[in-house]
Amino acid sequence: MLKQITLIDLSISFFYVLVILFIVNITKPSKREKYTTYYTTFFGLKIVYALLFVLIHSYYYKGGDTFLYFSGGNFFLEQMIADPFNSIKTLSSSYTELSELSYSNGYSIIGSIRSSDVFFLSKIISIILLFTGDNYLAASIIYTLITAIGIWKLYATLCKLYPAIYKHFAIGILFYPSLGIWGSGILKDPLTFAAVGFIFSAVYNLMNREKLFASIISISVSTYLCFILKPYILYTFVPVMLMWVQGKIVSKTSSSLGKYILAPILIPIFIGGGYLFLQQISTGAGKYSLENVQSVAEGFHSWHSYLAETRDQSGYSLGNVSFTPLGILVKAPEAFFVTYFRPFIVGDVRNVATLFEALQAFALLIISLRVFFKVGIFKSFRLFVSNPDVRAFLTFAIILGVTVGLTSYNFGALSRYKIPGVPFYIASLAIIYFKGTKNPLNGK
Q1: Less Cβ around it within 10 Å: N or C end of the chain?
Q2: Local structure of 315: helix, strand or coil
Q3: Burial class (CB in 10 A: 0-12, 13-18, 19+), 87
Q4: What is the pTM of this model?
């Protein structure tokens, strides 16, 4: 259901913008850390990004999954209005239980939200629509601002680890244009990106024995959101977080002998725990289970190749991919390069959206080359081995980059799928640069 922006939509949205700015102002961190200076600017900019997202999908793309989620949200809103005393039952109903709900004029949308992830996100959007009504712009702004909290958590946690390079983290996380656009609006990506930020922040708190109960709840809820919407993120992020915890524990051990003893004990424990956890996730992940990786990837290839051929969308190909350990390893460097450094300005660009991505990809390539040239390949590798933050962050960025690069085959989709990995890749570059150039930061 394509939504046009009316004067009423703008008026209602303007009211909510004023309310949001007021809340942002009174919730601004009172601490004097330098990174908090970006708090108001970031949330204000997210409002702009939400507006741009709506304009792009309403008047440039003239469609997209965002309108499907919004229509699904409207359906559930209609059910709650029709039977308000059973709203909780409505929101907790499974797809097979929908026959018990009150039918409405919007019931025809049910066939389109059959998928569990679409069904779930539609319920979330319906809660927001309780406040905005049938106002796509206002709902998009509120949804964007809610998910922005997780992105801020990610940024703030990195700044706690390395306060002196807060500006570089801000550029790579808060103000990176592609993350701003595709990390906004009513899509799955902003919510799963936020979930990654909440998990990362909560794990940091648990390691430092802070906010224990709140952190456990945050990890549980965020993990569940990723499990329903994009479980493949958990396949990479959970093992990396376990690696990070193990590395931080060992690095805090003052005794060299203790490090040699502790590492062999912790590594198998974390690997075993991570394996069992991922097996549990995979069992209930449906089409995204580990056993279905190849079929899902081939489905993406087919669909996105079709879009590139018939709708003038910019696609790419990695040739024949064998989904075996050796086949994936062979294609991994090319898949990683495609994810972070393509589309090329010359050859790949077929529309304005792709040009937008190409300019950023080129800038990121130049920055990456400058970092590794300045620090040196061997020194960068030593930092990767010795620094638990670089090791974990870059591992996640590499694995996610290879995964989405192998499956997307469309630059438009790739720009969304890669957003959880981009902040960690840029954070790795920043840490490598300042540690490798002997800048006297030492994480302080």
Answers
A1: C
A2: strand
A3: middle
A4: 0.86
